[in-house]
Amino acid sequence: MSESTDSAAAMATATAAATGPATATAATTAAGATGATGVTDVSFLLQHTAHVLTTRMTTALAEIGMSPRAHCVLAHAAAAERTQAQIAELSDLDKTTMVVTVDLLERAGLAERVPSATDRRARIIRLTAAGRDAVAAGQRIVDQVHADVLGALPTEERGPFVAALTRLAAGHLSTPVDSPATAPGVRRPRQARV
User: Fold this and answer.
1) Each residue of 3-53: pLDDT tens digit?
2) Is 92 helix (H, G, I), strand (E, B) or coil?
3) How far apart are CA 193 and CA 83, in angstroms?
4) For residue range 85-133, what is the model confidence (pLDDT) as tens digits?
5) Taking Cα atoms as reference points, which of 95, 68, 101 lies closest to residue 190?
6) Spatial distance between the Cα atoms of 176 and 173, rounded to a whole number of angstroms
7) Which residues of 55-117 form beta strands (DSSP E)?
8) Which of 28, 43, 64, 98 has the fewest Cβ atoms nearer than 10 Å?
9) Whole-model pTM?
10) Is residue 14 a contact partner of residue 8, using CB atoms and an 8 Å limit?
């Protein structure tokens, strides 16, 4: 362990003792952001914040009986006439998960599979009136969770933060790389549809 890592760990422990569990977790998280070599652990920062954001989103949407996945599917279906396969692609869901999700939405009376107006061979996901209400309520919650996250940053840091994440998501981190089949614990990219 380097001196800077030792110092960060010591600071986290002292902060935890002085301020209680919530601040202790934040201090420990900040200490974990520096790897053993003293280099910022970007993987840890992105994974940890994504995990916490996901738990907050899940909890907030659960208040209206919806999951983030269900909201995502409903929101994509509400935006345009789209097939189940198109919505799965936009939502980054595999075929099986998409079928299960749409089945749930149909049973809840929020969506239905109907023939496309432009291609009778295709089935689109159409929202019911209850589905339109649900997606509107869900979107208000999603927007509030996102606003809370950005609101935790000083005003002058919000724009650059979003710009940097957008640049990474559209550029350097836009496409997963193929991992060797022997790599343990790596999520393999979905197969392209032929």
Assistant:
1) 444 444 443 444 444 444 455 455 555 556 766 778 889 999 999 999 999
2) coil
3) 14
4) 999 999 999 999 999 999 999 999 999 999 988 888 888 999 999 999 9
5) 95
6) 7
7) 111-115
8) 43
9) 0.74
10) no
Q: What is the dihedral of CA 47, 91, 89, 188, to 10 degrees?
A: 30
Helix-strand-coil split of the chain, %, nearest 5: 65, 5, 30
State the Cα angle at 73 between 72 and 79, rounded to 5°.
90
Q: How many C-alpha atoms does 74 have within 13 Å on its Cβ side? A: 28
Q: How far apart are CA 115 and CA 121, in angstroms?
A: 7
Residue matched to tokens 């549809």:
193
Spatial separation of the C-alpha atoms in residues 159 and 150, rounded to whole Å: 9
β-sheet bridge partners, residue 125? 113
